[in-house]
Amino acid sequence: MEEIDLKILDLLQTEFPLVSRPFDTIGRQIGISENETIDRVKDLFTNGLIRQISAIFDTRRLGYDSCLIAMQVPKKDIDNAAKVINAHPGVSHNYARSHLFNLWFTIATPPGDNLLSDVEKLSNDISSHATLTLPALRMFKLNVRLDVTRSRNPLATEPGNSRKKTKVELHLSPLTDIEIAVIRELQENILIEESPFRGIADRIGITEIELFSIANKFINEGRMRRFAAVLRHRESGFKANAMAVWNVPEDDVEKVGNQFAAFQAVSHCYERPPQPPIWPYNIFTMVHARTTEECLGILNVMSQSAGVKEYDYLFSEKEYKKIRVRYFV
């Protein structure tokens, strides 16, 4: 892949400009024309490197409930079980992972729905031998930015990467009808054209300036994490993606969570409730690497640096579903 394309991918992952002509802005940062930028981004979509360019919303701050679920399914039945799980409209991610608990998915439900009832029904529908319900208690980091340019050391720690959050933060005002319409539009893949936001604003019945004002308000409130591209991990060279789970003493959770969140190779770091004796782990991290050996090396360094010896890792074996949750549809 050309260096210019790698630079484009790196920029798009970080933040897509919320301006009238975003590809002109991106092109200027790299030193190419708007038209060339558009053509290259189209090619990156066609070649399967970019999955989506859209808003990334905070599920709970939109009033939705969400949870990570793990199920234990006989290996011979896992493909059929995944189809049943995928049919639920709130399931956004669904993976086979290398563990006794071998089917992992995230599920979100709108205000008024009962998430636990839906999970129980899915568990019964696929005859899961055991099910773990693992809501996020605290988020230390959520920042998926693959180092496609190889400019960052995956073992490097950057304290600025650590962003401790709790469930109780801002008291947000109810969303207006216009704001809900903006969410419906911005959650979809944008068109790769000169002024992709103009059509969005027209469909809502507002100006581009009003659209950007609402989007920036969402960012300031934490309702929108960012507007950016999501890449396909494997196509981008990251073929070893592991969910590492750690058994951390309760008094050390905050310290260790912030330590792990600072690692460049870590994209997600959450505290979730342990369910002993079958599941003693309370910190979850996602680590992305180019090879299995590199991934295991990163986990070893994390273990040594934090002094956490009891951990396990679950490699992604098969991706059954990876989409964004679609809100207010």
What's the gist of this structure?
It is built from ten helices and twelve strands. By secondary structure, the chain is an alpha+beta fold.
Keywords summarizing the entry:
alpha+beta; single chain; Alpha-Beta Plaits; 329 residues; two-stranded antiparallel sheet; ten-stranded antiparallel sheet
User: How many angstroms does the end-to-end distance come to?
Assistant: 38 Å
Biggest sheet overview: 10 strands, antiparallel
Mean pLDDT rating: 92
Helix content: 25-40%
CATH class of the domain at 60-135, named Alpha Beta
Envelope shape: globular
Helix run count: 10
Assembly form of the protein: single chain
Give an overview of the whole structure.
The chain has 329 residues and is an alpha+beta fold. Among the domains are: 1-47, Arc Repressor Mutant, subunit A (Orthogonal Bundle), CATH 1.10.10; 60-135, Alpha-Beta Plaits (2-Layer Sandwich), CATH 3.30.70.3460. The chain has helices at 3-14, 22-30, 34-46, 78-86, 115-125, 177-186, 196-204, 208-221, 253-261, 292-306; strands at residues 50-57, 65-71, 91-97, 103-109, 131-134, 138-142, 165-166, 224-231, 240-246, 266-271, 283-289, 311-322. Strands 5-2-4-3-12-9-11-10-6-7 form a ten-stranded antiparallel sheet. It has a two-stranded antiparallel ribbon with strand order 1-8. β3 and β4 (103-109) form a beta hairpin. The longest helix is centred in the C-terminal third of the chain and has 15 residues, at 292-306. It starts with a helix and ends in a 7-residue tail after the last strand. The model is unreliable at 160-168 (pLDDT under 50).
